[in-house]
Amino acid sequence: MVAEKKFRCDLYYRLNVVPITLPPLRERVEDIPLLVNFFANKYTLRMRRSIERIPSETMAALTAYRWPGNIRELQNLIERSVTLSRGSVLEVPIAKLRQSEKLAKGLNGESKLEAVEREHILRVLQDSNWVMAGPAGAAARLGLKRTTLNNRIRKLGITRPRV
Questions:
Q1: Which residues, in sequence order, are bridge partners of residue 89?
Q2: Per-residue pLDDT tens over the stretch 121-139
Q3: CATH 1.10.8.60, domain 25-104, yes or no
Q4: How far apart are the first and last CA of the chain?
Q5: N or C: which end of the chain has fewer CB within 10 A?
Q6: Radius of gyration of the chain from Cα atoms?
Q7: How many CA atoms lie within 13 A of 124 on its CB side?
Q8: pTM of the model
Q9: For 77-109, b where at least 16 C-beta lie within 10 A, e where not — what string?
């Protein structure tokens, strides 16, 4: 666009002075129905389909979902749903959403990655006799700085057992 003289070269740097932060979709639940309708209309027109209705149960399930892939995940799901819907009602595979959410969560609500990280850090701490610093300390064994290890311990709620 700069080469075509449609966009000023310095405009990006002038606009970049004011950062615009957009919270993730899971923090903007009220936007989900608007986005679902927008994407459904967009793909209905593009694919020359006639989706006239989105069931309230479907909208409730889409609103309750955490959307780890953010708006792109929602957009892809709606596009796929418009493509695969057989009638005038949007058929969204809600069961797959629920299944993926269950897989992403551990037993106590933390993600599987956090659970694995917590277990690994605990094992290394026990192997190092809870020594954090030094060449044989837990931080060195994990390849982390001591302060980073302390932050992760705090984040994961790891506490040293009382003897």
A1: 53
A2: 999 999 999 999 999 999 9
A3: yes
A4: 67
A5: C
A6: 24
A7: 20
A8: 0.56
A9: bbbebbeebeeeebebebeebeeeeeeeeeeee
